[in-house]
Design goal:
Strand content: under 5%
Number of helices: 7
Structural class: mainly alpha
Distance between the termini: 25 Å
Radius of gyration: 19 Å
Order of helices and strands: HHHHHHH
Shape: globular
Length: about 180
Amino acid sequence: MTIPSALKLLVKVFPDPLEQAWAVGFFAGCGAVANMGGLVVGAMFVQRVSYHWVFWFTAGSRKPKGAKWKSLDLVGVGVLTVSFILLIFAVTSGSTDGWKFPVVLILLIISIIMIAGFLYWETLLPADRAAIPPRTWFYNNFSVLFATALLPSFLWSGVMFIFDIMWQTVFHWSVMSTAVHM
């Protein structure tokens, strides 16, 4: 749901068709470069230092200026982002630390409460300001469209995971060599 929401924000922030085309093109180009660049940079960290450093490597961002950004739902997007970070951390920590570990359970509960808070927050905002308007969930065939949109991502992730494991265990390739071949 992040790419459709981001495209909605771009269309809203850049109403002029020429600026809109440039912004969407730049967004798509950055996504393609980041996809491969992140893989190679992550592989460098894993191979040279350790896999723990991948989590410390984050890109800085700055808050955009201008009146266009005042109509964006920064609170909702912020709450949803933090809740997903906590959810992912809890799920990945649960598999290593154990699901009965208090930190895992607390973070999992907090993330679920924050997601519910985000959904409630979106109902309080007008539809033109909401990051994900509540009417989105009631479109005809929404579940079919959502599943169809996610299927290629799941397929690609699964295939890349299998290739990653095979290249490193069967062929004894380094992490960097595996990342470059992906």
